C-alpha cells in the first residue's frame, strides 16, 4: 500500500535502473516531493515504465517524476525515444521561415511530452528561455535564439505542443544565463550587467510567458550590480521581481544544490535554507545521496499547507489521442524532427 503523505519541498534522484531498498525509504520521507531522473536511470522503454510505476506506487499522492529532456545534447532517454534536435536548430529554422520554425517547435513539444507521459514521467525542465549570445559554455544551442521575440514565439509553440500532449513546462534559467561564459556546474558565473540591461532582453521571455509556465528554475548566476547572491538564493530576484513584477504564480524549482555555484550558500542545509528563504518552493539535490540524507535528517523548513496541491497540479494528464505515441500526427512529427536532429551530425 502506498504511504499517504503530502508532497514535500525536496526533489531527489536515484542511482540506477531500479529502486534500492534505501531509496524506497528515502523517497518516503515527508520532506520529499519528487524525483528527477537522469540518463543513468534509463536502459530501455519497458524498464523506464517499470521504474516510474514503482516510484509512483510508493506514495499517495504520487511523487512528481521529472527529467531534463530538452532535445539535442540534453536528452536523457535516447534509444527507443525519438531524436529531437537542439532548440537552437529550431531557432535557425525560424530565422529562415518563422511559421515552419514554430510548427517544428510545437511538434517537438508534442513528441517530447507524449513519449515522456507514455513512460510515466510528469514533467520536463524545458524550455530553456536563455538567449544565445554565443558565449555560454553550458547554454549554447540549448537556447532557441539570440532574439527575445523569436525565443518567445518558439517557446510558446513548444509550450503549446507539450500542453497538447498533457504536460506542463518549466522555464529556465531566470533571469537569464546566456550572457556568461562560465558553467555553473563547475564554476560561479557572474553577469556584470545592470538590472535594466538584463530586463531589456533576457527577462522578456520570462515576462511574456510567466502565465504559461507551470514552473521556473532560477540561474545559479550572480548579477553583482543587482544583488550579491546568486539568483536562486536571492529574494530580490525571486520575490520582488519574479513573483512581484512578473506576477509568476507557479512553482519555483531551485537548480541542483550540489552544483559548484550553489556552494557559496554553505553546507547542504544552508543551501536549502537560503533557497527556501529566497522563494524556491522545491529544492533539488542530485548525485549526492549522502547530502540528501543529511538534508532529510537536519532540515526543518516551514512547509506551506498548499505546497502539495500545487505540486500535484503538475502531474501529467493523459495524453490526447490525436498527438499520443502512434498517432499519425506523432509519427509524422517524430520523423521530421529526427531528420532535423541528424542533419547537423551529417554536416
Question: How would you describe this structure to a colleague?
Answer:
- The protein has 347 residues and is of the alpha/beta class.
- It has one domain (79-346): TIM Barrel.
- 39% of the residues lie in helices and 14% in strands.
- It contains 12 helices and 14 strands.
- The protein has helices spanning 21-27, 45-56, 87-96, 98-118, 148-165, 195-200, 204-209, 235-245, 268-278, 289-298, 307-312, 328-346; strands at 3-4, 10-12, 32-37, 59-60, 64-67, 69-71, 74-75, 123-124, 170-174, 215-218, 222-223, 227-230, 251-256, 282-285.
- Strands 8-5-3-2-14-13-10-9 form an 8-stranded parallel beta sheet.
- α4 (98-118) crosses α12 (328-346).
- The longest helix is centred in the N-terminal third of the chain and has 21 residues, at 98-118.
- The chain is globular and about 55 Å long.
Question: Key terms for this structure?
Answer:
two-stranded parallel sheet; alpha/beta; TIM Barrel; eight-stranded parallel sheet; single chain; globular
Outline of the structure:
The chain has twelve helices and 14 strands. The protein is of the alpha/beta class.
Radius of gyration: 19 Å
CATH topology, by name, is: TIM Barrel
The total count of helices amounts to: 12
CATH arch. level architecture: Alpha-Beta Barrel
Q: Quaternary arrangement of the chains shown?
A: single chain
Mean pLDDT: 94
User: What's the structural domain tally?
Assistant: 1
Q: If strands are numbered along the chain, what order do they take across the biggest sheet?
A: 8-5-3-2-14-13-10-9
Shape: globular
What is the ordering of alpha helices and beta strands?
Answer: EEHEHEEEEHHEHEHHEEEHEHEHHH
Helix content: 25-40%
* Weakly predicted, low-confidence segments: none
CATH class: Alpha Beta
CATH level-4 homologous superfamily: Glycoside hydrolase, family 3, N-terminal domain
Which structural class is indicated by helix and strand composition? alpha/beta
Strand residue percentage: 5-15%
Separation of the first and last Cα atoms: 53 Å
Amino acid at each position: 500500500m502506498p504511504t499517504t503523505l503530502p508532497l514535500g519541498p525536496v526533489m531527489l534522484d536515484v542511482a540506477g535502473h531500479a529502486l534500492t531498498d534505501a531509496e524506497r525509504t528515502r523517497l518516503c520521507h515527508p520532506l520529499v516531493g519528487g524525483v528527477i531522473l537522469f540518463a543513468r536511470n534509463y536502459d530501455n522503454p519497458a524498464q523506464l515504465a517499470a521504474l516510474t510505476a514503482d516510484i509512483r506506487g510508493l506514495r499517495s499522492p504520487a511523487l512528481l517524476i521529472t527529467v531534463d529532456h530538452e532535445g539535442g545534447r540534453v536528452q536523457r532517454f535516447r534509444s527507443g525515444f525519438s531524436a529531437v534536435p537542439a532548440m537552437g536548430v529550431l531557432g535557425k529554422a525560424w530565422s529562415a521561415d518563422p511559421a515552419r520554425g514554430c510548427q517544428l517547435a510545437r511538434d517537438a513539444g508534442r513528441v517530447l511530452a507524449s513519449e515522456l507521459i507514455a513512460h510515466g514521467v510528469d514533467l520536463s525542465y524545458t524550455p530553456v528561455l536563455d538567449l544565445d549570445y554565443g558565449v555560454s559554455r553550458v547554454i549554447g544551442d540549448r537556447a532557441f535564439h539570440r532574439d527575445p521575440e523569436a525565443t518567445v514565439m518558439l517557446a510558446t509553440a513548444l509550450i503549446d505542443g507539450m500542453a497538447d500532449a498533457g504536460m506542463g513546462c518549466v522555464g529556465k534559467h531566470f533571469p537569464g544565463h546566456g550572457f556568461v561564459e562560465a558553467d555553473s556546474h563547475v564554476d560561479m558565473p557572474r553577469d556584470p550587467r545592470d538590472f535594466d540591461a538584463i530586463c531589456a532582453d533576457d527577462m522578456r521571455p520570462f515576462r511574456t510567458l510567466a502565465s504559461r509556465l507551470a514552473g521556473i528554475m532560477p540561474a545559479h548566476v550572480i548579477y553583482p550590480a543587482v544583488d550579491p547572491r546568486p539568483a536562486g538564493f536571492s529574494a530580490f530576484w525571486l520575490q520582488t521581481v519574479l513573483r512581484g513584477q512578473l506576477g509568476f504564480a507557479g512553482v519555483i524549482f531551485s537548480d541542483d544544490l550540489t552544483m559548484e555555484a550553489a556552494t557559496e550558500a554553505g553546507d547542504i542545509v544552508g543551501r536549502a535554507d537560503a533557497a527556501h528563504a529566497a522563494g524556491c518552493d522545491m529544492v533539488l539535490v542530485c548525485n549526492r545521496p549522502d547530502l540528501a540524507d543529511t538534508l532529510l535528517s537536519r532540515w526543518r523548513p516551514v512547509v506551506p499547507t498548499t505546497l502539495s496541491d500545487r505540486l500535484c497540479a503538475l502531474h501529467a494528464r493523459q495524453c490526447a489521442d490525436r498527438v499520443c505515441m502512434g498517432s499519425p500526427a506523432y509519427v509524422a512529427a517524430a520523423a521530421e524532427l529526427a531528420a532535423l536532429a541528424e542533419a547537423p551530425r551529417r554536416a
